[in-house]
Design goal:
globular, 69% helix, mainly alpha
Length: 89
């Protein structure tokens, strides 16, 4: 995939991941794209462990789904690692 395809897939995946996991996450469009691009890599790795073949082949539905899955995993990890304490005392 070209760099433009990675950016487009990353933007779409980041937006979908944030839509599926609403919450107060810092960052705007650039951070959303970076999470989505990294999510594509993570999702591709995770799916590659279980499925033979290359699912990340271009700007298509399977690629966006895999990238979104990876972005959701990254958002979950981010929230677990950097969750602010909610003390009531």
């Amino acid at each position: 995939m070209s760099i433009l395809s990675w950016i487009l897939v990353g933007l779409v995946a980041g937006i979908l991941a944030k839509a599926l996991m609403p919450g107060r996450d810092p960052g705007g469009c650039i951070v959303t794209m970076l999470i989505g691009i990294a999510g594509a890599l993570v999702g591709g790795f995770l799916v590659g462990l279980f499925v033979r073949g290359d699912l990340i082949t271009g700007f298509n539905i399977p690629t966006i789904l895999v990238a979104t899955l990876g972005a959701i995993v990254l958002l979950l990890l981010y929230r677990l690692l950097f969750q602010r304490g909610t003390s009531t005392g």
